[in-house]
Amino acid sequence: MRYNCAVTGWFQHVIVDPGKLRLFCFLVSFIVAFLFIRFSVRMIRAEVKWWPGNVTPGGTHVHHMVFGLVFMCIGSVTGLAVQNPRSVWAAVTASVLGVGAGLVLDEFALVLHLEDVYWSEQGRLSVQVVFIAIAASGLALLGLSPFGLATGDETPLSLALILLFNLTFTIVCMLKGKVWFGLLGIYITVFALVGAIRLARPDSVWARSRYREGSKKLAKAAVRERRYGRPATAVMAWIEDMVAGRPDKHDERPELLCRRRWAVQASGQWGPRYGSGLARAQASSAFARAGACAPPAGSFLFRTKTRTRSRSPAKSATFSVTTALPRARAVAATCASSVACSPMSRTWTASRR
User: How far apart, in whole angstroms, are the C-alpha atoms of residue 252 and residue 254?
Assistant: First the structure.
């Protein structure tokens, strides 16, 4: 009983009285929604029978980002109508907004690339953006104000100087590839200052534009990246995989296999072992369901580079590339928007060993 009273008193004193109830409810619902949807997609990915699965009314897959947008609209609009920030309705609307934001940011990479990259390496961006949003909301909940503007009593001149000083170092940190230093620098200026003074990461915008090839700065930045950057990136990737699931080792979605196998096979990079047998079987079944591209018996799904009809290996390789590329481009263009391929691909996959 005393413990409950102590927790209630702490919540009232730390969260409700300072006016942070909505921010607290937003952050909690955001984290819960993200963890739930990640658990759901991992169950769907593992093909667990007792889990409901994807929402596909009429055969159309509805991404959870759509539901997130609806929740965000409801939570934000109704939240504007609530005048008392300490009321129950204020907490409810903030929670609805947090759920919507969690569902939308979980598919941030899809929105950015306009392509379903959820389980690819590019999909890691969604998890990173979610972690950044959680960190920013958590720092604000702890009472840290962006750029040190806590009182609101600053004069226009002092406000302009503070924003110019802090924003400059924060932007430099971002350009140098130090995202977390830049994020923490929004609330704690010393992080932005340290990140802006130190060398940029070798693959950042700042390094590519200001560090000449072969310069000492670039070499030193590469050494620091190997010594500190890569281990930190590996730790972050491990945390992301543990929380959100590990991306596919190869992007083996059937529709991308259909798109890429014709565009890449002419260069000889596609072999019989590229992609798992399960992925090739899924691609074949997807092609069959689409009514096209189903490889007949005795044919091979991935075409090799060389053809042994010519007299010399050099001429044979050249002959294969020059004849394969036009067909690869034609089929890749037809396969870019769907799993189904053109009739040309039926003739192309019917080649015998």
Answer: 6
> How do the domains of the chain map onto residue ranges?
1-143, 254-349
DSSP-assigned letters across all residues of 12-39 = IIIIITTT-HHHHHHHHHHHHHHHHHHH
Structure token pair of residue 208: 């590519």
Phi, psi of 352 (to 5 degrees): -90, 155
Cα separations in angstroms, 282 against 85, 256, 257, 275: 52, 11, 10, 11
Nearest to 222 by CA among 194, 198, 195, 201: 201
Model pLDDT, residue 316 = 42
Question: So what's the pLDDT on residue 86?
Answer: 87
Helix, strand, or coil here: 120?
Answer: coil
Provide mean pLDDT across the span 72-96.
Answer: 93
Q: What is the DSSP letter of 352?
A: B
Measured from the Cβ of residue 165, the count of other Cβ atoms closer than 10 Å reads 15
Alpha carbon distance 166, 305 (integer Å): 56
Residue 3's pLDDT is 60
Dist. CA 150–CA 32, nearest whole Å:
29
Query: Can you tell me which residue has the tokens 């009321």?
Result: 87
Does the structure show a pLDDT above 50 at 353? no
Average pLDDT over residues 24-53: 93
Burial of residue 337 (CB within 10 Å: 0-12, 13-18, 19+) is exposed
